[in-house]
Design goal:
Layout lengths: L10 E4 L6 H31 L6 H27 L5 E4 H34 L4 H4 L2 H24 L11 E2 L6 H6 L6 H35 L3 H7 L2 H20 L5 H25 L2 H20 L1
Parallel strand pairs: 1-3
Antiparallel strand pairs: 1-2
Length: 312
């Protein structure tokens, strides 16, 4: 690279979602409401599970950790999106961009493993109910949690190891509202064909593979329930639709991002907003909507919080 002809990029410029003031105002109100709602909903789930002894079971342990990860999913890109909406020059430093990519892939990797763990939990509860507490022991739950964080960290570090030293020497405009690998790699002033293949193999194949593992596990559960119907199994199956919905919402945008070339920037942005705002907001709604035990516990916690506030 000729230093006389190129300047090293120290920051990146986002084009954002729209230049229309009216649309920006709608997006500001909309994204702020969803962000606050998702933070409150996921925090309430964590507080409810940790404070209610009736919910100290493997399925709720995994749910609380999923809610914790959803707090991270909401916070990695959404605050920056809200802050930038009315700014004329939407910039992020090179270090900030790398940090954003790092945390996006950490929380994404952790959530992927947690969803697989939750599918395994439902499989054991429905297909091997007599051995549930033996298989889903506290040791197994901790194993799932540690594995999720290790896989998320390793996945993210591997992604960034090939990107952090790329030469960026001219173009610094991202037609997006956040940093991620596909957009960033295209700005490098070198041949990135092999690197793009690596990103597809790492993120795309992992996403598709995990998605099919989950779908196959749910098919096995459904077939088992149909062969051995009972009241207990029907109750366990009532939570399965919630798991499948969350899996589709989570993996849908990921599979599109990392396995198909960018055919439409606007579609990319829509799916990114869905992934950053809707999924963390919908997860607590979906998991609690049909779960009577969780709804009763959450109401109990809310009453305790109101009583504590009145006393103080």
């Amino acid at each position: 690279m000729d230093g006389a002809n190129h300047s090293v990029v120290s920051e990146f410029v986002f084009l954002g979602l729209s230049n229309s003031w009216e649309i920006q105002l709608v997006l500001f109100v909309f994204s702020s409401m969803l962000y606050v709602a998702s933070m409150m909903g996921n925090s309430l789930i964590i507080l409810t599970v940790t404070s209610d002894p009736h919910l100290h079971s493997p399925v709720y342990f995994l749910l609380a950790n999923l809610s914790f990860i959803d707090l991270g999913v909401s916070s990695v890109t959404t605050p920056k999106l809200i802050y930038d909406l009315f700014r004329k020059c939407k910039v992020i430093s090179f270090g900030g961009c790398i940090a954003q990519i790092f945390f996006i892939h950490v929380v994404g990797g952790v959530e992927m493993v947690l969803l697989i763990a939750m599918a395994f939990d439902r499989y054991v509860a429905i297909c091997k109910p007599l051995h549930y507490l033996t298989i889903m022991s506290p040791r197994m739950c901790i194993f799932f949690l540690v594995s999720a964080w290790m896989i998320g960290l390793i996945h993210s570090v591997i992604q960034l190891a090939f990107v952090v030293n790329l030469p960026f020497c001219g173009l610094n405009v991202l037609d997006s509202f956040y940093c991620d690998l596909p957009q960033l790699i295209r700005l490098a002033c070198t041949d990135t064909y092999q690197l793009e293949l690596m990103v597809t193999a790492n993120s795309g194949l992992i996403s598709v593979g995990s998605f099919f593992i989950l779908i196959i596990s749910y098919i096995v559960i459904i077939v088992t329930v149909q062969k051995h119907p009972s009241a207990g199994l029907s109750k366990a199956l009532s939570t399965l639709s919630a798991h499948i919905t969350v899996v589709v919402f989570f993996f849908g945008p990921l599979i599109f991002f990392y396995t198909w070339p960018s055919l439409s920037t606007q579609l990319d942005k829509f799916l990114a907003i869905f992934d950053a705002l809707f999924t963390p907001f919908l997860d607590p709604v979906i998991y609690t909507f049909r779960n009577q035990e969780m709804k009763v516990a959450m109401r109990r916690v809310c009453r305790q919080l109101v009583s504590y506030r009145k006393i103080s």
